[in-house]
Write the structure tokens for this entry.
Amino acid sequence: MKEALKRIKEDAYDEITVFPMFPQYASSTTGSIADLILSEICKWQHIPSLKFIDQYYSHPAFVEAFSNRMLSCHPELFSHVVFSYHGLPLRHINNSHPGIDSRVCSCDKAMPEYGRHCYKAACYETTRLIAHKSGLPEGTFTTSFQSRLSKNWLTPFTDETLVHLASMGHKKILIVAPSFVADCLETTIELGEDYVTLFKHHQGQELVLVGSLNDRDDWIDAITKIMKV
């Protein structure tokens, strides 16, 4: 990013739009990007107009693009859909709304008034929006969180969720990761390989990963629409 900013500075642009590849805001992801960019640009002699897209999980174009991607995998052929998001420590989530413990927050049912910049609330709302757009019946999908480093991270954990679903008799599960817009190790390896092995070890038959948006045409169109807001 520093190299890119250096080139931007040399070309003397009047306006810069920053579009993080994270649909839901979190201080450790989007916040870190903002911190780096602002710390660099503030040193410039000429500071251009700066527009920062902090999150876009609820934008209709993003929801439609992810819905289209998931529908291409025919969710009707699976008994359950798991929406898996990158996990975060509980202390990060609680800092978003002091005085309200995220573990007892009702954001899994509806977006609370204080939840606009709560990562957990945004993830559950993302699930609801994509599920509704895709026509998934209530009770056929679950939200969970992957890549935990300790038990004090967001729950339910994706690995435990998959084991539970397998124990309930679900043999074919579709898994989608809407906290990523490009495939990475956490999608292709953790979800697409490690969790497939885990699921089959617990008598599941098929766990299919929905690929991310990557360079799909509808996602490129969505980016242009989101940046115009």
